[in-house]
Task: structure prediction
Amino acid sequence: MSKEAKREMPTTKAMLITHPVRARILTALMGRPLTTQQIAALLPDIPLPSLYRHVRTLVEGGILKAVEEVRVNGALTKVYAVQEGQTHIHPADVRDASRADHLSYFTTFLNVLAETYRGYLEWEGADLSEMPVHSLMETLTLDREEYAQFMEALRAFLQPWREKTSGDGRHRLIFAHLIIPDRPDPPLS
Result:
């Protein structure tokens, strides 16, 4: 059996996209098409053979697609983009996941955010006064229906902002939000 045939795909979409390297690749590609060489320039700590392998895994898994081919130094090179809606993990994607799996997915998400920010801080062009990091923590007390309404309102609010394109002094920003269920108040004793 060939080396290619032996390589196995992750068993779930969540496992596919929450691998630490693949999650960083997806973050680099969100909202913009890039060649593998451009991804490598954004993620210089990932060895090229590993980067190529993970891009191929994401393409085979239907998460990425080649959207065009361009000439780079005379050679045809594929330009990749994230397939619409493929970076979201839906409840059905994690129905059979263990609590340890859920924690692993969550910590990968947090680590990717930290790595993205570290990469920005290490970039010579970083200007922390022009686009400062914003973080916000609030509590919400919602039932299931209100939670669904909140999520729909948030999607609707973000839509016109997602449609803006680069240029005209705009800078690429990564908007990440977390909603974490909390434990109920402990009883008074």
Observations:
- The helical segments are 3-6, 13-17, 20-29, 36-42, 48-60, 99-122, 144-162.
- The mean pLDDT is 87.
- The first helix runs from residue 3 to 6.
- The domain at 3-123 is CATH 1.10.10.10 (Arc Repressor Mutant, subunit A).
